[in-house]
Structures are given as C-alpha cells and as structure tokens.
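Internal QA ticket QA-208
Title: Verify multi-chain structure generation after dependency bump
Assignee: T.L.

Test input:
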Amino acid sequence: MSKSSVYLDYNATTPLSDTVFEQLPQLLSLWGNPSSIHLASRGPKQILREARRKLADYLKCSPLEIIFNSGASEGNNTVLKSVWSYYRPQNIYGNSVKNEFLISSVEHPSVLKAAQFLESEGAVVKLIPINRAGELDLEFIKNNISEKTALVSVMYANNEVGVVFPISQIARWAQEKGALVHCDAVQALGKTHFNIQELPVDYLTLSAHKFYSLKGLGVLYVRKNSPYVNLVHGGGQERARRGGTENILGLAAFDVMLNQLSLVTEKEQHVEQLRNYFEQKVKHKISKVYINCEKTKRLANTSSLIIEGVDGETLLVSLDLKGFAVSTGAACSSGNPEPSPVLLALGLTKAEAQNSLRVSLGWATSQEEIDLFIEELVSTVERLRALEAEEKIKGQSSSDAFAFSQKGFSL
Amino acid sequence: MSNNINHQSTLQDSNSSIKPQKKKKVLVAMSGGVDSSVAAALLVEQGYEVVGATMQVWDYSSCEITEGNGTCCSSLDVDDARSVADRLDIPFYVLNCEAKFKASVIDPFIQAYLNGQTPLPCVNCNTYLKFDHLVKKMKELECDYLATGHYAQIIQNEENGSYQIKTSEDDWKDQTYFLFTIDPAIVPHLLFPVGHLKKPEVRKIAEEKNLVVAKKKDSTGICFVGERGYDTFLKENVSQEILNSKKGLLKRYPSGEVMASHEGIHLYTIGQSKGLGMTYHEKLFVLKIDPLTNTVWVGDEKYLFYDEVDVVEPHLITQFNDNEPIQVKIRYQHKGSEASLTKTEFGYKLKFKEPQRAITPGQAAVFYSQDKVLLGGGWIKI
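Actual output:
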C-alpha cells in the first residue's frame, strides 16, 4: 500500500492549484522584463495590467491603489514604517502629535516585530488584549484610539485559531478619530469574500502563497492619498512605489487563481462542512479535547485544538511519520519551538499551548482525507495517552501534567 | 487539486516486496557530528527504517558560533544533522528539550561547582535526556530501537542471554564511562552502530558516503559551555553575589598554614597545580575543597594519592559477584585500575590495589569486568 500524504496545514501555505501547475510551463515563458520596450516585455506587461485589474475589480478599488511586492511581510513592514515615517516630522517638531500604534496582540510577527522596531524609534505601541474566546477587547480599542493614534492594525482573521475580527467596526472608530487603518488579510483571501467597500480600511495586505500560487508575491492595497513611503526605492516599478524587477512568474501564477475568485463562496461552504464534521467527530471520539474559540466567528477552514495529556510536538512528529501534515502554532525557523504566542495571548497556559494542534483545511480537502486523519489522530492520541499512563505508573513520567484552565472564558 | 506532496517520511517502498517482514524502526540521536551521522548511515545501509532526531538543549541564538567546530547542538550542528538526514533520505526532527536539559544538566552542573565539586554533565545528559527522554520518544514514535553514535558495544551474554554494554574497539574514544546510569531494561533496545569501529574508520565511511560532516572537528569539552571556559560560563549564569560568597582561603596541608586567599572554590579542581592564584617555591597541588569553609587545601603531590574511596548512588547494569576483580575508572580516559568493592549503606567502598591520583568528588567511579563489560558505577564522594 503506498502512503499518500494528507495535507492539513493550509494556513501555513498552500500547494499550487492544479490549474497553476498545468499552466506553469507557459508562465515560464514570461521571462522578459516588463520595463523593457521590446517584444519580450509584452507578456509580462500584460500580466501586470490584467492581474492588477482583476484584483481591483474583486476588491472594488482602483487599480492605482494596488502595489505588487514580494509578500505580506514586506507589505506589513511597508505600512507600519510608511506611517511612522510620514508622521515623524510632526512628531519631532510638534511634540509627538501622532506617535501611537494600536495593534492586536495576535498579529503576525511581521506586524508585531515591525511595531517593536518602531517602538525603539520612539513610537508608542499599544497591544489590544484578546480573551480566551478569541474576542478582541473592543472597549480597549475604543478607549485607546485618539488624535495621537497614527495607525490601527488588526488582521482580518488570525492564522492560529481562525477567529475573524470586526474590522469594519474598528475601521469606523478609527476614522472617527482620524487614525489610519491597516488590515492584514492574508488569511482571508480565498477563504471568504471581502472587499474594500465592506472593509473601509486604508491599507490591506495579501499574500499569494496562501492562495494556491507561488511564494514571493504579495499585494499591498493603499487607499488613494494615504501616507506611503517606499520600503524599496529603485527603478520606478509600481509607479515608483516599489522598486525592483517584478516577480512576473509569481504574479502570473497568482493571476491564474484570480480567475477562480468566483469559487470562493462555494469552497468556503465545502470546507466549513468538513471542518465542522471534523470537530464533531473529534469531540465524540477523543476525550478531554477542547476547541479554541469554537463559539466565536472563525474562518471556515481552521480548527485549533487542545488535546489534554498529549505532547503537541510528539503528536506532530507521529502524525508526520504516518503522512499527515498539521501544525502546532507558528512554524519556527530557529529550531526552538516555543509555544505559540497567539495561544499564550489568548490566555492558554504554556502546557495547554504545548498540547495544541492546528488543523487547517483547503480547497482540495476531501471527506476521505478528513476521515483518514480522524482515524489516525484518534489512534495516535490513544496510544500516546496509554504510554503516558504507563510511565506514570512506573513513576517515571517526565512530561508536564496539566488540568484544563477553566478560568473565565465563554463557551 | 493535487495533494500528493513529496516529503521525507519513510514509506513502505517497492523494496518491501523483497523483504517480507516489516522493517525494524530506529530512532537515531543525531548531534551533527561525524559519529552519529555515520551511525545513521550504517543503520540505513543495514535496512532499518530510520528516523533522525536532534535534541535542542540550549538556545544558541545568543552564542558565538565558529564555522567547522562542533559545539554539540548549536544551530549549525542542527543544520549539519539535517543535511546528513537529507542525504540519507530519512525524516529528521528537532526535539525541544531545553527545560529538561536546564533542570537535569545545567543547574546541577552549576551547583556542583559552587559546592567545590567537579561535575560530569555528560552523564546527567545521558541519564535524563539521551537514555530517558529519547527512550520515551522511541516508544511514542513506535520505534524498536534507539541508536546513538557512542563508542560502546552491545553484546549478548552467552550464558544467560542478557544484554550487556561493552567497551568499544577504539580504546581511546571509548565512551562507556558516561553510560553507567543506563537502565538495564532498555539495553536490548539500544544500538551503537559505530562502537565496533575505530575513529579513523568512521571518518572514512563518512567520506565514502559523502556526508558533509566527514571532515568536521570532534566536539571537545562541554557542549553548552563551548570555547569560553566553564569559569566564564559560571560568571554568565550565576550572580556575582553568589560567586563572591565562594571566596575563601588557600591553606597548606597538613600544617594548616594560610597561603593566600582565593576568588572562589568553583575555580579549583582536585589535582590542579597551575593557576592556583599564588606563587610558591615548591609545586603545590589542590588536594581537597571544603565547601563549608570555602577552604582549598593545597599540598605536596604525595597527598593526592588515595587507595580508598566512597561511591554513592550506585547504579548497576550488570550484576557482579563479590569476589570478582573489578576494573574501576575514576575519570574519562582513565586507564582503569583494579579495586575490590564492599557494599555500604549508601553505595560501595572501593579499595584500589594501587593508590590512585586525584580522585575527584563529582566525578564518577565506573566499574568494568575483566573482559571489559560495563557493570555500572556511582558518584565519587571523599
């Protein structure tokens, strides 16, 4: 029996769609520099134009408000640093007129670390707390947006637990006080419909590799007349807003997926049904499992679980050896798997965070895959718990025991 | 949408039709050094289903890393281990053991020095991490064996069939000194694939298999201390206040004459004659460190020799008879010396046939049979 892998880590990244994969050989022929005058630039120029137009149509904004870059990390950095840079003269000569950044405590590291950097430059960064149910503290937001707020940055949906935040409400409060609003919508594209009219934000970040296309391509939406300072100065690309020869291959692959945006709702329903089925089965077949933020509005594809009595790292490795790809919290590159800061911000203990698993479904996920995964998960959890019990009897257990933290969260 | 993703998990491939039984699965502890890399390679060659793992024991982001030098588990070493795993086409994981390592290895290491002892952190690592935590992982990941790159051998006793640990073929590299705390119940589940080889042969195999680590220097010293020296390590990890409280006097034995004051008992080890912090016309050696008075006793070399020592917290892997002549090593790469063992309340009293030089509290006394079987050992206490 050959083992095929079951991939359930779509929030980390997505495989190329079959359509993109099939078209790749043709897309590879788009090697010309779009800035050239000759024939080689025509295809690339067309891609830039078409992709931009399609995306603008979808987002209900102007093509002039779309900037292509290397990814969402670049986009997020550009927004934060642009706004800071823009207000700096006022801050220096006008005594810190607009030097505050209001950011959710569960943003992606590219936002949090950029904010930390701005802090070292004198910015005041306020982190919006979140409760165990995954709800942002809205009172805190209201009370902390003032004339001093330069930017409010809240993601559309959290990559770790999937909760969807009330962006339009937050955007309105920000606008009332004259603050700019940024939304990192990386986890939203392809998972749910949204556009700039529904989300009246000033900046929006997107990433291609979360939407079945290549890595190294991102989109930054910048509302007309919003503060913008280049992160990368250079050859005049993107109307001189982002230097560097464009990643045409990445953009062409992304463009293929833009043709499939009409499928988003249908796919969302399909994935939601599977995710709910998965959670129902897991709760039924495995004891002492807790689903994070279950009752809060979430992306249709994400399921974050705490499985008591099982070390997350061991579970992940066991599942990988059997061909199942899931994750525990943010992937780390340093080789030092710290518990997810998002789970800690939600109020989970270190032990609970360590016993967490994140499953994220995608357009290609099938009922069969979910059933195979449930079967493997159930048997692995049973086996690991039995081993743990054996160790305890021998008195040799060295793992952390924990009880569910039941402190004040809404079920 | 295509979902077949190429990944490293070892699968039942077409070869399984030739070997009808299920492959035995081995978890290999890979440090990124030559020995454990070749161990993994040999196991793959021998037809095992191999899973490689490295223990992340220390946060190396804050440390200086020098290219080419093994420091055991620095992130460059992890990359090396991963690169070897890739070449061997085996899955590879980094297992986070920082908290456990700190509690079972680093903290006792620091405490021992502050108590005037010379610790043996590698034994604690073996006791609590390699042969405890990793054994647990072996079971959790449904592996049949745990393998390491240690220079040691597993043999099966001809008479009673029990599994025993024997010294390696390479006398100089032999590492059985550090293995005396292994639980005899797990010995049947251990593999030491390079234990029957000499170091030059191991390097040769690494070169033949084109492993990136073939020419890598061996790690020397303590993995979490590295090049900076343990006194620097202590300064970085212990408050100056506590270190200052370890200051005291250097006294001459047996006269009791005060020779000088010293900067801390943690800076001395038994048998030391250089860097005492005092000059004298005769060569003097550290004879004893008293943590209660912070006194470091120095004296003539002849006082370094003892033929008796108390060994506490003993652990036996293989039983031995009362009259059996036992070879005892009192430090790593000690040649071993014959001793007779008498049971005491806390362990054993060893009486050496010949007086031994600089028996050091904090080190281990490890027992071997005449045919080099590792019997067990205990901790030296004078």
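Spot checks passed. Chain B has seven helices and 17 strands.
Status: verified.
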